[in-house]
Amino acid sequence: VERLVDRVNNSTLLEDRRDACRALKAMSRTYRVEVGAQGMDTLKQVLELDRADNETINYALDTLNNVMSPTQFEEEENNPRVPMNIGEQFTEMFIKDHHNIQLVLDLLDEYDFRVRLSAVQLLTSLLTNRPKDIQEIILVKPMGVSKMMDLLGDTREVIRNETLLLLIKLTKANANIQKIVAFENAFDRLFEIVSTEGYSDGGIIVEDCLLLMLNLLKNNSSNINFFKEGSYIQKMLPMFNTPDEVEEAGWSPQKVSNVHCMLLIVRTLVSPSNSAQIISSCQKIMKTVGLLDALCNILMSSGVPADILTETINTVGETVRGEVTNQEFLGNVMAPSNPPRPAIVVLLMSMVNEKQPFSLRCAVLYCFQCYLYHNEMSQGNLVQTLLPSSSDMSSLTSGQLLCGGLFSSDVLSNWFSAVALMHGLIDNPMQKEQLLRVLLATNIGSSPVSLLHQCTLLLQQTTKLKSKRAKGIFESLDTVLLVYDHLIYQPVTSAAKEYDISAQMDISEHENQTTPPNFVTQRSNKRDERDYRNDDLRAFKEEMFNRISSLIVPQQEELKKIYPTLMEIKSTNASIENAMAALSAQNEDLKKKINQLETRVMRDNEYIIILEEKIEDLQRGTRKSNFEIKNVPKVQHESKDNLVQMVVTLSQAVNSIIDAKDITDIYRVQNKRSNTKNSTIVVELNSTLVKTEFIKKTKDFNRNSKEKICAKHLGFKTGEYTPIYVSEQLTTKGARLFYLARDLAKSRDYKFCWTSYGKVYVRKDDAAPTIIIKSESQVNNLMQQE
């Protein structure tokens, strides 16, 4: 890995750097730690300096993507040296310099398929590892989001699909980015893709588009208003069209996912957490464009999967919640049964049926609550089904279903029915009064009892049940007592004196009947209202006192049994608290040690920088009298005398005489490539002045002579033209800085770029000040300046 990184850094040929990048990519899956630690800075330089070569850029992007991938590769599963979060660690290193993100964003403009795809995948990996940090960086980058949005229009589906995944991660939980994406015509582009893919019958791309829409709308009132005013609610309607052949063939798993996502979008628009104005306007539009009708059709269709049916019930509930027109529409929907029944009744039948899934029963309860929410007429219609009526009572009503569920042997049916009945009374004093005077009979021939009395009997039954069963009954009937709270403390008005109502219902017989009988009868004897209420309350108090007293003794015995266990738990908790205190103290000590280590590391890093600078100065000092002659052909059986003679001959040619006694040492540098004929000669002189004068004369010779310095000026007698280059011998760091400075001069039109005594200098023009290049970051800053 180190050798490959060195090739990328120092190779002058583009093919060499490209081959090295290809090899790094191949090794990055198996040796991720080594490639990331040694090659990340080099790969970032490739992205910046080799933009002209798409293939090299592609290899660099793929290598970075492998290094920062959030997933573990198969090649490194058995390598214990690779941490699980290694991708996140390298991501943190990569984004310390925000300019690196700008480099990747700029590559999105490249039309080359591999470069654009690799750039999108790299951004996706970065967002997966550090979502909040990347979101903040992209938010301040000019045109950053716009460049990503442009990719949705790419005709190559692979890039478009990868861009969808990128935008899903980018827009998650960031309102500012969500607004920018929405106002970049995101909804138009997404609905166009959904339409092209076939709406709900499309593939996973439709699901990705809907997930992106959901991100843009969730908890973002600005985008919801934009969605509503842009007439996008109408465009959702084709998603809910279910042809008859689909019902017969069944729903594919992908269609289930697509419709589920669209239902979540509808619920987001009418979520109770939104403002009342937004909810009301969205509900009205959904009713006007036929979306509510389409949802009800799915509700009443056959063959709908249970998950979709549950979510549709929730969606219908929130679509009608608090909107009287929509609630009336739902109340008038008829189920395609024989005989036809209202959809509300069919839903309540599912709620009190213990064989139905729990999630479905909860959804029906929520939908029924929404149907009654702020609607006194619907509440009145519910209570009215329990009152005597001259109309035909052969059909099943919602009130009868709730009463049946209230006294069912199923605990959940008790709870569901109690909650549903309670919502029929909320903020409606008139219906409280009506329901208070309804009497029920649990057995044929028995005298009717009040609703309150019958619920009290259910509480008494808990003493005969096992503990878990009793706990469930108590929890369910706790809600029933909330109904009583609405009933007991509701004063009876004088209008109620005109009639007394009783409803006789045989619960056991009702369970075996498809059409319930008319349970409501008129009680003939009338008592004074005050006597009736006092007797009922007195009997209730006495009975409750006796029952509670009988429950105290077994409860005390149970407490005695569990007391040792409680003490043991208390002792265990005390031990845990002591252990936590010890761990907390240990944690504080570790924090202090970590802070001390971090401070020491910072000091060490500063000292290392000082030492590196000193070493660089020492290296420059040892080379201040040296120069290099590059691209010198080799001579058979070459000796140092031959090399000295070449230098003397060259000095005579440029008119700067160097004697053999001026040369303290001379040697030829071995090239990394064994097949190269020409290489570099290093000449060490005993005088810096002689070296400086010689280099000056060579530059003057090349500037003034028509024929530049070549092999024949060294004494070679050959007809082949071989150019020769003379320069100072720089350190490794100096050579790298000189390379970057020349690239800076070429890119930013600097007129002068030279070296002197091992240091690198640039100058914009004759009147500009001279700049000493000391680091690569300084070159990057000069590159960014206008």
**Average pLDDT taken over every residue:** 83
In spatial order, strands of the major sheet run 8-9-7-10
How many E-type strands?
13
> For this structure, what is the CATH class of one domain?
Mainly Alpha
How would you summarize what this structure contains?
This protein has 786 residues and is of the alpha+beta class.
Describe it for me?
With 786 residues, the chain is an alpha+beta fold. Among the domains are: 184 residues, Leucine-rich Repeat Variant (Alpha Horseshoe), CATH 1.25.10.10; 106 residues, 2-Layer Sandwich (Alpha-Beta Plaits), CATH 3.30.70; 54 residues, no CATH class. Helix content is 62%, strand content 7%. The longest helix has 94 residues.
For the structure shown, list the relevant keywords.
786 residues; alpha+beta; Leucine-rich Repeat Variant; 34 helices; 13 strands
List the topology elements:
Blueprint: H1 2-10, H2 14-27, H3 32-49, H4 54-67, H5 86-94, H6 99-107, H7 113-129, H8 131-140, H9 144-150, H10 157-170, H11 175-182, H12 186-197, H13 204-217, H14 221-229, H15 244-249, H16 253-269, H17 276-289, H18 291-300, H19 306-320, H20 324-332, E1 334-335, E2 341-342, H21 343-351, H22 358-372, H23 376-384, H24 398-406, H25 411-423, H26 429-436, E3 439-440, E4 449-450, H27 451-460, H28 467-488, E5 501-503, H29 507-510, E6 520-522, H30 529-622, E7 626-633, H31 640-653, E8 663-669, E9 678-685, H32 688-704, E10 725-728, H33 732-748, E11 752-756, E12 759-763, E13 771-773, H34 776-784
Antiparallel strand pairs: 1-2, 3-4, 5-6, 7-9, 7-10, 8-9, 11-12, 12-13
Helix pairs in contact: 1-2, 1-3, 2-4, 3-4, 4-7, 6-7, 7-8, 7-10, 10-13, 12-13, 13-16, 14-17, 16-19, 18-19, 19-22, 21-22, 22-25, 23-26, 24-25, 25-28, 27-28, 33-34
